[in-house]
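The data are passed on as follows:
___
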Amino acid sequence: MTKLTIVANDGTKFEIDAENGSTVMENAIRNAVPGIEAECGGACACATCHVYVDNEWSETVGAPEVMEEDMLDFAFDVRPTSRLSCQIKVSDELDGLVVHVPERQA
């Protein structure tokens, strides 16, 4: 299991044991993290699972692919560390990952 911390917009921290191969979005939904809507269910067809990757982790997580970048154009308050949580696959190298939920989704 990989440890994830998802920080809701009100500062509430959700410490989650995530299965490798799952996505950050799937774990957020399973743990009822407020602010992650995931309307498309993880198909990278909306921008309602937008998160900010903590600065410490942005290099490890990496940049979005072209399709994800296109969807981020529809997200609210996009920043350099913005990612769609449905596109971040959990793996051992992400153990300890911290992401932050924006004020609202698009």
Observations:
- Residues 3 and 96 are 5 Å apart (CA to CA).
